[in-house]
Design a protein that fits this description.
Elements (H helix, E strand, L loop, with lengths): L5 E7 L4 H14 L4 E4 L3 H13 L9 E2 L10 E4 L10 E5 L12 E7 L3 H16 L3 E7 L5 E3 L2
Parallel strand pairs: 1-6, 1-7, 2-4, 2-5, 3-4, 5-6
Antiparallel strand pairs: 7-8
Amino acid sequence: MTPTTEIWFYHLERSGLDQVLPGLLEKTREKGWRALVRVATPERLEAVDRDLWTFREDAFLAHGRADRPHAERQPILLTQSGENLNAAQALFILDGAELGATEGYARCFILFDGRDDAAVQAERDRWKSLKGQGAALAYWKQSPEGGWHKAA
């Protein structure tokens, strides 16, 4: 882990992953960054792949999968592996997927379901571990209105 890589935890309480992830990916692309979305299961990979094509009637997020040709060209790459095949600056961790090495990333986003007690506990443990390693951490929580505020 490099000290310059920011690691931001997103505690989802009011919105689901399918609602939050596309917006964060749009903001990432607006910065001119590429994104790597790491998932824990093949089922989540399929769901995210589908959702990014259909999240809005008037838009989609161009993306590809690491298990398909031309992974290195993708602005957003979906994967289960630890390789940064598309030279992404932003890493998104879903469903407790392994964080792995963060060298080369400007920012890592760890998104988790705040309604799942096991997920919350797992991410608290990850936070403590990363904090003990001196990581640059931030914790974002949803407000009752659905917006985000920095809680730590």
